[in-house]
Amino acid sequence: MNETKKKMSKFQWFMVIFIIPFVLILALAVVTLTVVEHPTIEKIKSSVTALPVVSLFFDDQAEVSELQSEEFEQLEQQLLQQQENLTLLNETIEQRDSQIAELEQELLEIGALLSEENSEDDVVQTNATNSYEEIGKLYENMSAKNAARIIAELTIDESIVHLDTISSEEQSKIISKLESEQAAEIMKRLANR
């Protein structure tokens, strides 16, 4: 039993002194060779890959790096395509922005023209209103019989516009002097307003 202990202790001693450090050094060398990219290490890798057992580890790495480089190239191509698309989209946006600016300018010009026309229309309408008010004052100052003769010569629409400028009392006096058919039509239209 003592001898078996001595043999075991010699085996343990042999393991601790030679085998374990050898395995650790080998593992460290493999990790260093796979991680570091240096020209001398490349030479070492190529000479080590000639060994049958070690070549299994490096062949897989070569395939993985080839796949990664292909994938990297595909991603680069996709990135370039997306950058081209982005450039085209930016150009389209710039064109649309310029079109929008042009349309806004046209809109401002049209708005200015409309406001000028509206102000001209307001002036014309104010002048027309002023002239109708003056006509109304003339009707109020003349006799109902004379005003009725003038109204009788106008169309129904013109008659209503003229009568709108005078008071209700004066309207009734003038309408009473008109022919009955014309008076009835004017009364209908005045009532519908």
Report on the structure:
- The chain has 193 residues and is mostly helical.
- Among the domains are: 80-141; 143-192, no CATH class.
- 91% of the residues lie in helices and 0% in strands.
- The chain contains seven helices and no strands.
- It has helices at residues 2-35, 39-48, 52-141, 144-153, 156-164, 168-176, 180-192.
- α4 packs across α6 (168-176) and α5 crosses α7 (180-192).
- The radius of gyration is 54 Å and the shape is rod-shaped.
- The model has no long low-confidence stretch (mean pLDDT 78).
- InterPro entries: Mg_transptr_MgtE_intracell_dom.
- This is Magnesium transporter MgtE intracellular domain-containing protein.
- Residues 137-188 form the Magnesium transporter MgtE intracellular domain.
- It comes from Alkalihalobacillus trypoxylicola.
Helix content: over 70%
Radius of gyration: 54 Å
Chain-averaged pLDDT: 78
**SSE order in H/E notation?**
HHHHHHH
Main sheet summary: none
Structural class: mainly alpha
Give the termini distance in whole angstroms: 133 Å
Count of DSSP-assigned helices? 7
Beta-sheet strand percentage? Answer: under 5%
| Apparent shape | rod-shaped
Stretches where pLDDT is under 50 for at least 5 consecutive residues are none
Task: Tally the beta strands.
Answer: 0
Protein name: Magnesium transporter MgtE intracellular domain-containing protein
Keywords: Coiled coil, Membrane, Transmembrane, Transmembrane helix
